[in-house]
Amino acid sequence: MDINTLLTTLGTGQWVHAGAKDSPEISAVLQKSADACFELNAMAPSRSADRERLLRTLLGSVGSSCVVNSPFRCDYGYNIHLGDNFIGNYNLSILDEAPVVIGDNVMIGPNCSLVTITHALDAGQRADGIMTARPITIGNNVWIAANVVVLPGVEIGDGAVIGAGSVVVKSIPAGMLAVGNPCRPLRAITAADRVDVVL
């Protein structure tokens, strides 16, 4: 199976035989992405322009400003689309077998994973490389706090905040504070949540 057919089919949520070991083309793309991530992670933080330039070649699209702290890891890279003013903190992993679309002004805390792929539960099928993937969409002005896992098919609405340590298995509406494992909307974020700024 060629890589375009594979990723298109995976992104629809259908189960496919997608073992990278059987496809030199898929293995080559995964290796290229791994090498780019290695290069990024070895680059000094002070080389911010070089880091952003590398991200723009690795990822599908990047908005007006992008900061990704090392270490960072993704599978393919070109399935990831970042809006303006993106900040990804340390140890961000994005498994992008399906598209991952992130809006403007999004902050993702340390040790977070966005996972579009899942494997068959049956051990024999899993060993044969049977898998599926579904897209992840994150709206504008979202904050995902530390140690959050976002699973396949999830949409997070504009202005939502995902609390630390959450496992997001279902979509979260806009403007909600959501927490827990499994992550659930706790309450709406309102004007009462504004804080007094001292400095």
Number of strands: 20
- The rough form would be described as globular
Structure class: alpha/beta
**Tally of helical segments:** 4
Distance between the termini: 58 Å
Largest sheet: 7 strands, mixed
Amount of beta strand: 25-35%
**Low-confidence region ranges:** none
| Spatial strand arrangement across the major sheet | 3-6-9-14-17-19-20
Fraction in helix: 10-25%
Alpha carbon gyration radius: 17 Å
Mean pLDDT: 93
The sequence of SSEs as H and E is HEHHEEEEEEEEEEHEEEEEEEEE
Describe the structure.
The chain has 199 residues and is α/β, with parallel strands linked by helices. It is 22% helix and 29% strand. It contains 4 helices and 20 strands. The chain has helices at residues 3-10, 24-42, 48-58, 123-127, and strands at 16-17, 61-62, 66-68, 72-74, 80-82, 86-88, 92-95, 100-102, 107-108, 113-115, 117-119, 130-133, 136-138, 143-144, 149-150, 155-156, 161-162, 167-168, 176-179, 184-188. The strands form 4 sheets. It has a 7-stranded mixed sheet with strand order 3-6-9-14-17-19-20. Helix 2 (24-42) packs antiparallel against helix 3 (48-58). The chain is globular. The termini are far apart. The relative contact order is 0.12.
Can I get a quick summary?
The chain is of the alpha/beta class.
Comma- or semicolon-separated keywords:
single chain, seven-stranded mixed beta sheet, alpha/beta, five-stranded parallel beta sheet, 29% strand, 199 residues
